[in-house]
Amino acid sequence: MRREDAMELRAASELARKALAAFGLPANSTITFVKFRENHVYRIDSPLGESFALKLHRQGYRTDAELVTELRFLKALRGHGIAVPEPLSTCDGELFTVSTFDRHTRRVSMAKWIHDAKPSGDVGAAFSGEENASPEAFTAMGELLGQLHQVSDSMETIHEFQRGAWDADGLAGHAPLWGTPLALSTLTHDERSLVQQAMLRLRIHLTRLGTRPGIYGMVHGDSTPENVLNTSEGLMLIDFDDFGTGWYLFDLVTALFFYTPSSQYSVLEQALLDGYQSVRPLTAVERQAWDALMLGRGLSYLGWAAERPGDDASVFIEQQVVPWVLRIARAYLDSAPAPYSLEAQSEKDMTL
């Protein structure tokens, strides 16, 4: 571990301990570091036998209003029976607290700990084809996303709603939500030109798709299998860091993106759609936008990597994901079958 990372982790642990009192937890509660993926996450075990997940939200990513919107959304979803984490309020009735240690200040939220849970999949293993995914799991995942969108579509607007939009501008505008793919330093001149052309066409396409109710509303925004937990009571959707408004279809393509190079892809797609449409049907307009939103999801990963040079996940994207996204972009511009589609696979088999 780098010295800077070790210092940050020590500071994060102090911030976590200082936040306990705000949630009414004893100072002698056990604090266990779980992970750091932009947010620091800790498990808190109180002397009374209760367990909680404490999250130190990354500095500068969300405003207070955006964080409150996220936590209000989680509470509303739980009220509608959707399997998501249960946020805790502070002793003062607030949804988060601010913790300060030395020169460090972070917003802190807490939720009840989810026991005996594990992610439904791993994006790296999925992308490499090493993961043997279960179609049944994707059917269940489709059902969960369908329930989420059904509630989102019927829910009243959250008071003082403040979140980003996974719309035409958020995916392919001048300042996409996760950063511009064009800023990725590893792209060649020709690759950058290809990405730019694809973004221009995609923005027009998504603008024409429109944002009417029924196809567009509040979405998770990062519904990879790593953010869908297997629990003893079924699947649970976690990590609403990137929740906002968007096309419901966006959550479906996100669930499948890292499986698109896999020989399992068509089976998993059908399983996901079967589960989803058992809850709410997709319109013909949505189905026609599938490849466009899959491209938008892929481009967002390039923007994410451009914003975080040197990060391990960014290196993975640069080395492995970029060539695949470029293939998807080329097919999109040529109005050809996407490389993950059955049509493209059939054409490939005929040339062998």
Shape designation: globular
> How many DSSP H or I helices?
12
Class of secondary structure makeup: alpha+beta
The CATH topology annotation of the largest domain reads as Aminoglycoside 3'-phosphotransferase, Chain: A, domain 2
**Overall helicity:** 40-55%
How large is the share of residues in beta strands? 15-25%
What is the H-and-E element order?
HEEEHEEEHHEHHEEEEHHHHHH
* The CATH class of the largest domain: Alpha Beta
**Regions with pLDDT < 50 over 5+ consecutive residues?**
none
The whole-angstrom Rg is: 21 Å
Question: Using DSSP, what is the number of strands?
Answer: 11
> How are strands sequenced across the largest beta sheet?
1-2-3-5-4
End-to-end Cα distance? 47 Å
Major beta sheet summary = 5 strands, antiparallel
Quick one: CATH superfamily of the largest domain? Aminoglycoside phosphotransferase (APH), C-terminal lobe
Question: What is the domain tally?
Answer: 2
CATH architecture of the largest domain: Alpha-Beta Complex
Can you walk through the features of this model?
The protein is an alpha+beta fold and 352 residues long. The protein has two domains: 3-112, Phosphorylase Kinase, domain 1 (2-Layer Sandwich), CATH 3.30.200.20; 118-351, Aminoglycoside phosphotransferase (APH), C-terminal lobe (Aminoglycoside 3'-phosphotransferase, Chain: A, domain 2), CATH 3.90.1200. Helices cover 46% and strands 16% of the residues. The protein has twelve helices and eleven strands. The strands form three sheets. A five-stranded antiparallel β-sheet has the order 1-2-3-5-4. Strands 6-9-10 form a three-stranded antiparallel β-sheet, covered by helices on one side. Helix 6 crosses helix 11 (312-333). The chain is globular and about 65 Å long. The model has no long low-confidence stretch (mean pLDDT 94).
